[in-house]
């Protein structure tokens, strides 16, 4: 969320800018809220209750939680006489804000058969109406900052709704399809991997003062990078098959010590959602089971696997600073995003420079998640948004085929534990020059 | 299920008896199937998917499993050209029959959002129709034995549907009510406990050759019991309050060693579903939260607690043989059963002899669950029904307020692990004379 | 320990009997205490500290605990001005007597590097001297009862010292030998198994009023047994090899449900201490690794395995009453005991009637461990000796090659959980007639 | 270990330098090996076998492992006809080198009663003699690099021997003392904390090309730091008492999310080894239990606690670059080291600049452990030394009272998981300017 470094309306700029911003946010809020409901529209009430692991949440919970976020952080401030839709919802739909009191334990979100899905949709409708009314008259820049944060927050949960559902559906012996099947594998191979060089030296990263960004993207600051090169596209399934065939999952020398422990503990032999078949591999997708496409970016690999693959390939993972240095100058428009309705990464297309920088698959970096120099979390409960997760996780960049396009930018930082595999997580290689 | 000791039609008795039996079973099957559907009718699709612990199952699964039982063990034999409703259902709805292949892991039954509830109800309807047709022409005694077993099996799952649901609802912060609230506590105290003596010696227990009984109730056999007395009624909540007040949950001398471990591991301080309140105790029931009634039989205690309470009371638990010796001669008609729609035990009423022998609460016995002398499990997959659970569990007798009345009899044996608390499990004391 | 049913000196029998009993116990106490020290004499201080699992204890702890038992239950009563050797030892060496206060957690007994072994031996020496002095003047029958219990208790820990050590040594990659290697396998096969019949009916079991017995062996009482037969000798390793070869560890139909879970969870494919080898199987013994002798009784099998094997063999396990009915009339003198210094079962020798009834291997029974009718635990802390373990365990009979010969008798009851394998536990089959 | 960046003898420099280096290393090797044996000399064989948690190792194992290191990496290369002391020791004493084959599982090192301590000391003596002989003739720079690494490796295990032992002794109810008690608390308070400023900008960190350093300290490289200040001394026990008194362990807002989970899971209410007492706090030290000295640096806190304390204090933890920027210019000589035989941190003494930079307590940094730009692990098994641990851990700097003085330097990097508490780990605060 916007910390002290966030953009502020300059004094004296007047009401006009505030008006325009409020109007724009009102429209975007309505749009993003509709989009979430749209994603859930294909689900039965029972689908919407699925929770297949403690880290994932039911779709119904995502629907309720994002609504609770607007109700708690926006309506409670914006409405003169605020009354919550249901006082119990604070307990049910608070995710992790300690400052806001106790809450349903995360691993037990799947036990909420009540309220039923239709009631949660009524909750959404009422909050949407009240939010719209509030935004029709809102001018306070702080409040609008929170609205903007709420929109970004909702976009994050759109992605989680999809990836959590994919995990849950993959646990069903019926392997249900959420969407239409992705098109069959293209005939051709992926474009040849090229190395995009960088002379090294001082680079800048992080979000500038203008525009929305999460608190942890700020402040923009300088860093030093060595001479290095980045791959022109993510690692493909075809390349990963070579890793598998070369006993990549059986050679401890390729792995971090804890990665090797994870391989043995979980019995990993391939990325998540790969299914061995007589003639090779199938893949479970949000469109059901289909043959593996060697030209596609590999997805659903943990950081441990990404790191081991890079070592196998004689390369390494890029740092955040390296990644962002490339992303800024070559931000491509060739990615796959949630709006495409494909919900699966697509094979890279030929072209100059870095491809699929945004969209398709999140790209694990070599950087541990931590604060930028001078980082300040927001005050109050919203300060828990990112700051309290800054240990033990690795940064990912670029977004995925389940991310809304508007949600992404070069400075965007995502983070997961190094063993997480249920997101659309892939690999872009780097190497020293 | 009926083992080799089960009743068999005498040769030459003719078709008439077979006809009558088939007709009776056809009617009972229809009735019991309707009753199960009736229990589930109050549930939303989401309620029907709840699984709050590995030992419990979703209501939808109970609906599917009981149907699969009839389809697999009856229709597959009775229909000339049998085609399963859905070949995948064998995987989804097999409970534990190793002889019938792999199955959905028990702790993951709650992940079956598909098939949806309405589809499972269609499955029920089709199997019911085909079962009815099959029974219209069935005369084979072996097949009718299996139908009778299927009916008893369905009755068992009616009870589990209720108790599993109670556990799941109790895990919801909203504490939903499944049924109308039980009536408020009666004004009066429970009838005074009387001791019903037995001179000891040779007694007989187990089901005789006639009529339906599960395989483990046979053969009827003799046992020796010492001179002893049984309590005229189960232990009440009021009596249990004295145990709590006397630090019963804090005195290791009252407990089995593993019971004491359980007390500390789980932090037990009262029966399951008791809720401390400013002014005393509330109780979560299938009718919602209500005050504790001291005159009611205590329920939801583990064997460890039952055993510790008995020691506290200067008594002990009865053995199976003792229990059945009393039950046979004094089988009362004063119990509460599933048909009463109360779904909660009721306070004992005054009267001579043993009260609430059947119904209200299952009564833990001192007997470990094992085979009777000469026990033979059925052949084939149905031999897995009881025989493979004969270690590590304790026998309970008498049935509960969630048991169908017809399901119970003096020889009926139920069994659970000594730490189980989610059934309506209570205590009837015994002592040596 | 001797409960209320234990033998009591008849009034008027006079001092003479008390004198003789005291003298005899004084001699036996000295002897048994020496024997324990003898067993430990082959151990380095480091060996004596080994604890390879929570259920097992270090030899040093056994040495200290048995001493603490005499100090606490005998010296503290018998000495006019009793001062404990070290007040801290109550915490260190109490096993599980809740009535005597807190204690070193069982899984952390291996963390007691202090007191060093030599100090514990000094503790033994001092308590031995004081015990001897006390017994020189002791006449009180109650006190002598406790001395007798202390002797039996010490004998139990002699066996545990050996079996716990065997487990610990087997966990060392060096596979140390505790004793001289058992002689090489005899050339011949085991004697043919014969079935010893019993007409069934009323039998008596349990210890009579005279002589020492543990509380749980009393009262002697009657039970009914069906017509049945018992095997003339325990199941051999050779017979077990057939079970392994017939996929006995891969056929769920042979196993209790929880037994099958255990097979998969632990990856059992053979008895504990069997080691696969190029040419067959080796076995880890207290004399080191040596070839498996097919004529030997199989040892180190769990109750689950014993039960599955019996089903495989078309037989079953005997009940306690059946076992004891045979043991009483045919108590053989052909067993292997701790005094033999072999510490490993020996092949059966030909002979009439039941062979190896006492000694060689404990024999799992079909009986769950529980109280005999009319059982009363002793008063005070000694009441915790057996009574608080009477749930969840199975009875074993007969003793093993690690039991002192004097410790055993027909009425002796041992008990372990159904998955325990680290004792010398084997199988004698039974079947219905 | 020395990677490709390590110092290399310039061509043409001749044999003289090699001679001198070999002679110096020969002397140092002998000295450091003697020192390790000296640390172990106070231990009984039983003390030397203690393993109180999977992360810690018995002293005997440390003695064997460090010897195995020299035998495997030096003698096996240096001796013409190398024969290992005992072929089994490779299995027993390999720590984690996958390239060198299987090994005793880490959590089971405490099960090695054999070889006995005296045999391990013989192993040490023989390897020492052979090492000395080998070094008398060694001139190969690569081999000498490995000797130097072996010395540093041995020094690391000296510290671990002490900290692992402290943990093990603290688990004993007897709380044994390893060394003489530290002197009683000084009368005075700690010197006032001063803030040492840094203007920010480009700094250099890491080891230069000359002299020994571990591979992960190289290459020396530049980084940018913001304007900031570092505390002149570590946080004291007295300051930590204020954190405890202010409910620091009960305020989730001060903690990382995973830190708060750790607080609740482990029940942390104070640093490890603090013992509540009637009148305040005692502390378990390697000299036994003694009162807490408020003027001492706090030790045995996890990264989570260090981070929470810094937030409480309105400060933060320093990054590696910041820490090293200060350490280089102000490296103090006022620390407590293993050679002091105190084995406990000492109160800071007054003085200008940064105090206790080296020695006393390791200082947690804000930096996740990872590779420096351009990092290359060594080839072969020695490449596993550091490189495979570069995820999920946090860097610590400065060394402790259990570190040998020669072992430390400004560029030295240590790393542990954020929940580790059994090392002498403390806190030096930083803040932005």
From TrEMBL, chains A, B, C, D:
InterPro entries (UniProt xref): CTDL_fold (IPR016187), DinB-like (IPR024775), DinB/YfiT-like (IPR034660), EgtB (IPR017806), Sulfatase_Mod_Factor_Kinase (IPR051043), SUMF_dom (IPR005532), SUMF_sf (IPR042095)
Keywords noted in UniProt: Iron, Oxidoreductase
Domain of life: Bacteria
Domain Sulfatase-modifying factor enzyme-like: 199-431
BP-aspect Gene Ontology terms: ergothioneine biosynthetic process
Coiled coil: none
Pathway: Amino-acid biosynthesis; ergothioneine biosynthesis
DinB-like domain mapped to chain residues: 31-157
Name of the molecule in the record: Ergothioneine biosynthesis protein EgtB
Organism in which the protein naturally occurs: Anaeromyxobacter dehalogenans (strain ATCC BAA-258 / DSM 21875 / 2CP-1)
């Amino acid at each position: 969320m916007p910390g002290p470094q966030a953009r502020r309306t300059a004094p004296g700029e007047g009401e006009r800018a505030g008006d325009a911003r409020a109007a724009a946010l009102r429209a975007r809020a309505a749009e993003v809220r509709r989009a979430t409901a749209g994603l859930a529209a294909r689900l039965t009430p029972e689908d919407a209750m699925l929770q297949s692991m403690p880290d994932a949440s039911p779709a119904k919970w995502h629907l309720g939680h994002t609504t609770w976020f607007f109700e708690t952080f926006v309506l409670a401030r914006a409405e003169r006489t605020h009354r919550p839709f249901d006082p119990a919802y604070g307990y049910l739909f608070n995710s992790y804000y300690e400052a806001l009191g106790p809450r349903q334990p995360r691993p037990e979100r799947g036990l909420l058969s009540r309220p039923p899905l239709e009631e949660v949709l009524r909750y959404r409708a009422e909050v949407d109406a009240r939010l719209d009314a509030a935004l029709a008259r809102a001018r306070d820049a702080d409040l609008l900052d929170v609205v903007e944060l709420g929109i970004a927050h909702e976009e994050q949960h759109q992605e989680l709704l999809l990836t959590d559902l994919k995990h849950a559906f993959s646990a069903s012996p019926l392997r249900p399809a959420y969407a239409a099947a992705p098109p069959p594998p293209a005939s051709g191979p992926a474009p040849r991997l090229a190395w995009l060089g960088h002379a090294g030296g001082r680079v800048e990263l992080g979000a500038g003062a203008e525009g929305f960004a999460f608190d942890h993207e700020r402040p923009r600051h300088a860093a030093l990078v060595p001479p290095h090169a980045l791959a022109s596209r993510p690692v493909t399934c075809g390349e990963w098959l070579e890793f598998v065939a070369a006993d990549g999952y059986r050679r401890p020398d390729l792995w971090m010590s804890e990665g090797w422990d994870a391989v043995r503990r979980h019995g990993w032999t391939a990325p998540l959602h790969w299914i061995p078949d007589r003639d090779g591999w199938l893949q479970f997708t949000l469109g059901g089971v289909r043959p593996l496409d060697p030209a596609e970016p590999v997805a659903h690999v943990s950081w441990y696997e990404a790191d081991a693959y890079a070592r196998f390939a004689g390369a390494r993972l890029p740092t955040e600073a390296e990644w962002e240095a490339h992303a800024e100058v070559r931000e491509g428009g060739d990615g796959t995003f949630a709006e495409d309705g494909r919900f699966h990464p697509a094979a890279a297309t030929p072209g100059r420079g870095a491809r699929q920088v945004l969209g398709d698959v999140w790209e694990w970096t070599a950087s541990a998640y931590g604060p930028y120099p001078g980082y300040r979390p927001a005050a109050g409960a919203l300060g828990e948004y990112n700051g309290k997760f800054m240990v033990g996780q690795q940064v990912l960049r670029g977004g995925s085929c389940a991310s809304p396009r508007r949600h992404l930018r070069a400075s965007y930082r995502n983070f997961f534990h190094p063993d997480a595999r249920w997101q659309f997580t892939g690999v872009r290689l780097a190497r020293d020059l």
